[in-house]
Amino acid sequence: VRRIARILLIEDNPHDVELVKLALLDQLIPNNLRIISDGKDALDYLLRQDLANLPDLVLLDLNLPRLNGQEILKKLRQEEHTKNLPVVIFTSSQEERDQMESYDLGANAYIKKLINPDEFKDALRNLDIYWLVKD
Amino acid sequence: LACERLIMKRPKCLIVDDLDQNIIVLSSLLKELEVEILPAHSGKEALELLLKHEFALSLLDVQMPGMDGFELAEIMRSTEKTKSIPIIFVTAGDTDSKRIFKGYDAGAVDFLQKPLHDKIVLGKIRVFIELYNQKKLMEESFKTANEELERKVQERTHALMEANKEIEAFSYSVSHDLRSPLRSMDGFSNALLKMYDDKLDDRGRNYLNRIRESAQKMGELIDGMLVLSRLGRKEIKRETIDISQLSENILNHLKEEEPQRQLKINIKPTLVTYADLILTKVVLQNLLANAWKYTSKKEEALIEVGSKLENDKEIFYICDNGAGFDMQYSDKLFGVFQRLHHADEFPGMGIGLATVKRILTRHGGDIWFEGAPNEGATFYFTFNH
């Protein structure tokens, strides 16, 4: 029995939240999903957690209220206890510069929100293999 | 405003005479004119003043010890800074001496004869001062007009850059915001199909699939529009490009996607151009994909890539024997979202040729075509520079 993945989804679009839930279900990834829809709230939450309580994976949208994804990522990489936290950018931006910038800031992976949900499911399967199944 | 500036700064008048007494007489005469008088007692002194000041007029005594008035005038005429200062020679009445001065035809030279008559002196000097003031006024307004022009150019450039930035922001938001609802449409339709399969009949599944297809199609349209709008702004970097090799690669790729298709491909070797590589790929990709698509219903399909010389200029062409088109509707061919065939007959967004045309135009080149229904199409194109 694999352990339950603790995933923090930082996303302000309720439809996308629902689609992520569906994709996790579809890929049979046992999960404990926490959703925070505001950039500032999300950063505060992560900085408050001690190492043991940090999620296994953060799925981070770029376009968020108050603090955007890049700002959050930058702050996380500056803090000792969050600097190795796996962060996957999850965005509808198709701009190459957003991708470059995200990797420069220390993103672990970058997933474009595409219209076809199957592609997100594929990406999620890869994430599962790389970041969640550790044992 | 220009006038005010001129009045505040009175034009300067140089008086050169070895005798103080003569300077005093002339100075008092000129009191009623709005001029500032700078006296010099020798040619040498005068030259020093000429270097330092801008003069509207100079009054030179002809007979002076050392450098005389004519010698001074020669020097003034041969120096850039002073050569257009009007000169009035003050002579002792010897009319022959006028001819000695060689710089006469450099213009603005006059003579006053001693004994001086107040009215004549004032009249002559006034003419020169007025001329000077007019010249200054014109220079001033010319300068203002120039500055105005410069300011306008900067304003426009700035507005253009702003507009470009706006378009960029707009495309960004289009790509982001328009995709979002499509993702929901496709995603939730997909979820319905998977999770509620047992509750749906074939018609229901069919409708949901149509929603999915439409959402994905619209996504492609948005992408196409974005590509087109970006092309308008992308910087063109020219390099030598092997058109033959590129065409072959693209066609090989198309073959891989549909290996069952039988067709003859004819590429003229060593077709070379000097253009932007990325954009040239887009051009060839679009034209070859079109040729590929429109020959799909031919039994003996043929695609040809070649070139011909016209007025010493190489014109490339891509030719096929496919569905062709009626030249009557040809003006619609390069329009955005225009198509000449039904979507179910030949799928496409109607954006490819608009993109191609935009790219070639940006290179300074052009594209045109020949075609007839069921007799194929030939697209001619150039990349000028």
Pick out its properties.
heterodimer; A: about 140 residues; alpha/beta; 5-stranded parallel beta sheet; about 45% helix; B: about 375 residues; 5-stranded mixed beta sheet; about 20% strand; elongated
Number of helices of chain B: 10
Provide the helix percentage of chain B: 40-55%
Give the neighbour order of strands across the main sheet of chain A.
2-1-3-4-5
Q: What's the number of helices of chain A?
A: 5
What distance separates the N and C termini of chain A? 11 Å
The whole-number mean of residue pLDDT values of chain A reads 87
- Quaternary structure annotation: heterodimer
Radius of gyration of chain A: 14 Å
Give the ordered list of helices and strands of chain A: EHEHEHEHEH
Pick out the low-confidence regions of chain A. Answer: none
Major protein interface? A-B, 18 and 19 residues
Helix content of chain A: 40-55%
Largest sheet of chain B: 5 strands, parallel
Q: SS-based structural class of chain A? A: alpha/beta
Provide a descriptive summary of the structure in words.
The complex is a heterodimer of chains A (135) and B (385). Chain A has helices spanning 14-26, 39-48, 69-78, 96-104, 117-132, and strands at 5-10, 31-36, 57-60, 87-91, 109-112. Chain A has a five-stranded parallel sheet with strand order 2-1-3-4-5, with helices on both faces. Chain A is globular, with a radius of gyration of 14 Å. Chain A starts with a strand and ends with a helix. The mean pLDDT of chain A is 87. In chain A, 43% of the residues lie in helices and 19% in strands. In chain A, α1 (14-26) packs across α5 and α2 packs parallel to α3. Chain A is an alpha/beta fold and 135 residues long. In chain A, β4, α4 (96-104) and β5 (109-112) form a beta-alpha-beta unit. The relative contact order of chain A is 0.18. Chain B is of the alpha/beta class and 385 residues long. Chain B contains ten helices and twelve strands. Chain B has helices at 2-8, 20-29, 43-52, 69-77, 118-177, 179-195, 202-231, 243-257, 277-294, 352-362, and strands at residues 12-16, 36-40, 55-61, 87-91, 109-113, 238-242, 263-267, 272-276, 301-310, 313-320, 366-371, 377-382. In chain B, the strands form three sheets. Chain B has a five-stranded parallel sheet with strand order 2-1-3-4-5, sandwiched between helices. In chain B, strands 7-9-10-12-11 form a five-stranded mixed sheet, with helices on one face. In chain B, strands 6-8 form a two-stranded antiparallel sheet. The longest helix of chain B has 60 residues, at 118-177.
